Amino acid sequence: MEDIILVGSGGCMRELLWQILEGQDDVRWNVIGYVDNEKPERNDICYVGGKCCPYLGDDAWLLMQKKEVNVAICVGSPRLRKKIALKLQENHYLKFPSLILGTAQVCSDIQIGCGCIISTGSCISTNVRLGNFVFVNIGAMVHHDGSIGDFVTVSPGAALAGAVKVQEMSDIGMGAHIIQGIQIGKGVTVGAGSVVIRDIDDNCTAVGVPARIL
């Protein structure tokens, strides 16, 4: 079992903590605590199944570490996750393993970068490439031959058909569906429940059925 520190204190972190503590038959990670720039009123506010997760300090505390430690960035926002990752990577003692949790199904031939979180109930099919710090949330699906760029978030219940390409910093909303072969640009937000049937250019928001640019 390896020690790991969680970054963040919101719902995303608490769900990840739950998956680590209770959602695995073969527990690999020992959560020693969490880090957040807002100090809580008490030092063990995060309870999961009767277990507490102690507050360790802020980002500065983590950046001062002088021995190797595993870190998971538990933030749903692609932009904030990137900001935190770039800051923490200044300390070469901090390591960012990719976590495959609970009942997640992941094909053995996928390529996966560092710092990814693949949540319970999700499915990553064959010949899929995940960049760095990708967050695949509970129940999301990425089908064959897909490519997911750095810092992308795939929200709960979203489904990406075969050969879909999503470029960095994009945010695929809850329950969104993207048909086969579509390309999503950089910094795109796809609204919850949207159905994407055409390529989407960089830095825009698309919503609706079928999805249209706002």
Would you summarize the structure shown here?
The protein is an alpha/beta fold and 214 residues long.
Polypeptide structure, described:
The chain has 214 residues and is of the alpha/beta class. The chain is built from 3 helices and 26 strands. The strands form 5 sheets. It has an 8-stranded mixed beta sheet with strand order 8-11-14-17-20-23-25-26, with no helix packed on it. A hairpin with a 4-residue loop joins strand 25 (205-207) and strand 26. The mean pLDDT is 93.
| Major β-sheet strand ordering | 8-11-14-17-20-23-25-26
Terminal Cα span: 47 Å
Query: In the CATH hierarchy, what is the architecture of the largest domain at level 2?
Result: 3 Solenoid
What's the CATH topology name of the largest domain? UDP N-Acetylglucosamine Acyltransferase, domain 1
The backbone outline, from C-alpha atoms, is globular
Radius of gyration: 17 Å
* Percent in strands: 25-35%
Oligomeric form of this entry? single chain
How many domains is the backbone divided into?
Answer: 2
Low-confidence stretches: none
Which key features would you list for this structure?
8-stranded mixed sheet; Rossmann fold; 2 domains; UDP N-Acetylglucosamine Acyltransferase, domain 1; 214 residues; 6-stranded parallel sheet
Give a topology summary.
Blueprint (H helix, E strand, L loop, with lengths): L1 E6 L3 H12 L6 E7 L10 E3 L2 E3 L1 E3 L1 H5 L5 E5 L4 H11 L5 E2 L3 E2 L4 E2 L4 E2 L4 E2 L4 E2 L4 E2 L4 E2 L4 E2 L4 E2 L4 E2 L4 E2 L4 E2 L4 E2 L4 E2 L4 E2 L4 E2 L4 E2 L8 E3 L4 E2 L1
Parallel strand pairs: 1-2, 1-6, 2-5, 6-7, 8-11, 9-12, 10-13, 11-14, 12-15, 13-16, 14-17, 15-18, 16-19, 17-20, 18-21, 19-22, 20-23, 21-24, 23-25
Antiparallel strand pairs: 3-4, 25-26
